[in-house]
Amino acid sequence: MNRTVLITGASSGIGQACAWVLAKEGYRLALCARRTERLEALKQAILTDLPETEILTFTLDVRDANAVQQATDTLPADWQNIDVLINNAGLSQGLDPIQQGKLSDWDTMIDTNIKGLLYVSRAVIPLMKNSTNAHIINIGSIAGKEVYPNGNVYCATKHAVDALNKAMRIDLLEKGIRVSAIHPGMVETEFSEVRFHGDTDRAKAVYQGVEALSGQDIAEVIAFVLSRRAHININDLLIMPTAQATGTIVNRNK
Ligand code: NDP
Ligand code: 8X3
Asked: In 10 A of CB 218, how many CB atoms?
């Protein structure tokens, strides 16, 4: 049977691109996010192009520990073996100095990027027990490798993902589950629109004059990482646009 991948945050950006790229490689797709209608539209679009693809969609807010457990406990019988988990759901909220940060923004980032990733991993890892080729991909960020002005809490959550990636690698070693972190720099998705609470002009300015990465660029690297022979684990990759040297040093001369 083809490998089954569960992708969190598949309704947009990197997660959506992973769904497309892995569908083309013959994976069975279990796709979740909060925006169900987006998942349904994605499913239909993939089925139009690639009618053989097996796709399961379900609504999930990764911040809700009970909902995460319930969703994985009630997966249809033929979806209870998961080979690949892509912990992609995540977001940034605000870009404020720490003394002015909004508590609700902090809670949302911590609950989604750290606690959500933990809840999903804890619920899905038992579903990998029959897989002969199990692999977890954790989506970190350049923000998990360095900090930048006003990035404070978002950077802290992605540093936590970096730490959890290393910790999972140790704890899951005996189970033979591969664990890899993908740390992108600037990727043009809905990320900045979400960070700036729907301010599209401010979001557009982030990508002005620079060729950012696309979700597809990241998804293709993930497909490569997943396709290595079983004795190879790519622990950690930092992937930047050519025009971006650090979180904040960007050549905008495009
Ligand atoms: P998008 O905003 O385009 O996509 C984010 C996805 O996460 C959406 O599908 C969204 O779905 C989902 N999501 C957010 N909150 C929740 C939640 N509580 N429960 C379930 N799903 C949720 O951004 P990206 O594709 O860019 O972001 C994907 C990942 O990549 C994130 O972890 C982000 O931190 C990381 N990243 C992004 C970079 C960038 O520059 N864009 C760079 C480095 C890392 P929905 O709203 O439907 O629930
Ligand atoms: C998203 C990229 O540079 O805004 O993780 O932190 S950045």
From this structure: 25
The ligand placed nearest to the CA atom of residue 149 is: 2
* 154 catalytic residue (yes or no): yes
Cα dihedral across residues 10, 184, 186, 143: positive or negative = positive
Tokens 């971006």, located at residue: 244
247 lines ligand 2 (CB under 6 A): yes
213 CA distance to ligand 1 middle (Å): 15
Tens of pLDDT, residue by residue over 99-157, are 999 999 999 999 999 999 999 999 999 999 999 999 999 999 999 999 999 999 999 99
Centre of ligand 1 to C-alpha 15, Å, is 7
Catalytic residue among 27, 119, 148, 154: 154
User: Could you tell me if the CB of 226 is within 6 A of ligand 2?
Assistant: no
Residue with tokens 């022979």: 229
**pLDDT digits over 202-245, tens only?**
999 999 999 999 999 999 999 999 999 999 999 999 999 999 99
Which architecture, in CATH terms, is 4-236? 3-Layer(aba) Sandwich (3.40)
- Looking at the CA of 139, name the nearest ligand: 1
Q: Are 27 and 84 in contact (CB under 8 A)?
A: yes
Token match 């003394």: residue?
Answer: 99
